[in-house]
Amino acid sequence: MVELQINTTQNVNINFTAASVGERILAFVIDLIIKVAYSIVVYQLLFGVMNIEAWTAGMDYWSKVAIYVMFYLPVVFYSLIFETFLDGQTPGKRILRIKVVKIDGYQASLADFVMRWFFRLIDLNLFGPVFGPIIALIAIISNTKNQRLGDMAAGTSVITLKHKINISHTILEDLEATYEPTYPSVIKLSDNDARIIKDTFIIAKKSKDYQTLIKLRQKIMEVTGIKENLQNYDIEFIDTILKDYNYYTQNM
Predict the structure, then answer these.
(1) Closest Cα to residue 182, out of 216, 229, 250, 214?
(2) How far apart are CA 247 and CA 252, in angstroms?
(3) For residue 10, which of 124, 101, 105, 77 has the smallest C-alpha distance?
(4) What pTM value is reported for the model?
(5) In angstroms, what CA-CA distances link 190 with 36, 75, 195?
(6) How far apart are CA 47 and CA 56, in angstroms?
(7) What Å distances lie between residue 46 and 34, 43, 64, 114, 220, CA to CA?
């Protein structure tokens, strides 16, 4: 599995697992089946139920083409439409629990999805139904972040959402019934702040990244207005901040 480290706008590194090649292929196949099914249904409606040939008998060639293309536009813009309105997911990606994210920590925007869709025409469709996917597959496998050409251009990647969640992955902390908080001003933090603090704290403590711990402690004191570190070490201070935040938010 490929691990992606995303640096957020708060200069916090968060680790994600890139979707595997198998997951992306299966999601692609599911989406392809949906598009083919839609195309078959539309064809039956147009030439069977609606008898569109009789309707367009008096039209010129290009007018007929424009009408046919209009009905098949959802297939052309399939990935762009769904990724935009489903927050980086198509039906295939949603079933496989994978999604498109920015690798710089920002939320993927419409412009990013448009860029991915445009390059899909190149790395998936330009070289035909066989060689196109093969080229995209080669790009994903050879890229350190499992990106196809569209991902590279848009600065995105596809991650898996299949994580086993336990208390260490949340902002929750185990507190004893007799716990006494130290810093009341931690209520100035938001749940998202607490999550970022905990994610960064766990990673920095594990890797013994003391510089990051110092910066994290300084940022916490700046945001909360805490003037003095009553603990001896940054690790103890940050651990206390997380426990205090849980104490106050769980008892509000």
Answers:
(1) 229
(2) 9
(3) 105
(4) 0.60
(5) 46, 41, 9
(6) 11
(7) 18, 5, 12, 29, 63
